[in-house]
Every structure is written in structure tokens, then in C-alpha cells.
């Protein structure tokens, strides 16, 4: 796990003790738009998810890791999703639970750790991120980390009764 430890945060696998954190995060309607969730999850369903979280990325096409700060507090989650080993690509998503923990560099450090892992260990050629056009903080974060805007999905997400554009960012491993 040395390659998943940064200066201020580290990434670790999900543990059974993360159930309450996951329950709170997955049932927060404020993030449903970015996660694609449309209904709450029960603790039972999330417990079953945690029991299977050890499964290999090549089998389930996803890797979800916890973002922990230097005090070992769980502050967020970061994912590789739509893992495609044939075409050597995956999507990347991140959420920091509390507003007070955002804009402190933890997200940037987590993304950097995960893309380095994805490029060196999983041998991926590229990562992509889908970011709401109005999500300036996330757009700035991915741009700062060298992700390039490569497309716009017009009227992609229905939110609050209106359609919103989604920006596609890519980072190519040269």
C-alpha cells in the first residue's frame, strides 16, 4: 500500500466498519446527481456491498477506496469505474463528504495517488472523469491535475427540472 500513501492522505480498501460512513454518504441527496443514485440504500444492502468489496477489479470492473487523512479519519471515497482492461481505460470519481474538508488538497492528492496507481500497476492508458458543467470546483481540480476537457455531453443530466451539460475530462498516460 506504499504507493497509495501521500503526504497528507492515504487510500485504503473498504472495511466493514465503514458501513455508517457509506450509509450517510450514499443516502445524501446532495450527491445523488453526481453518483447517479435515485433512491436511498438500506444498511442491509450496503452491508452486502461491503462483504463483496474485496472482489477483484478485473471481475467487478470497479475499485472503490477510502480517503483517510493523517489522523486516520475517513473523509471521502474515490473510485475507478467502468474498468476496461482491453482498451486500458477507466472512469474516475471522487467525493469528499464534509464541506469543511473540501478545498484543502485532499481530493487532488487522492486523485494523483489513484491515477499513478492506475497507470503504473493496472497499466491503464487513460482515465476519464464526467463533471457537471456548473461544478467549477471539480472542473478546476481535474484541470489542475492535467486532465483535459475533451467533450461536452449536452443536456446529459436532469436535475431540479432542467437539463444540465456534463463535461468529459481525460488524462492520457504517455
UniProtKB/TrEMBL annotation:
Pfam families named among the record's database cross-references: Acetyltransf_3
UniProt keywords, alphabetically: Transferase
PROSITE patterns: GNAT
Domain of life: Bacteria
One GO molecular-function entry: acyltransferase activity, transferring groups other than amino-acyl groups
Signal sequence coordinates: none
Keyword field contains tRNA-binding: no
Keyword Transferase: yes
N-acetyltransferase domain boundaries: 9-174
The protein's name: GNAT family N-acetyltransferase
Organism: Poritiphilus flavus
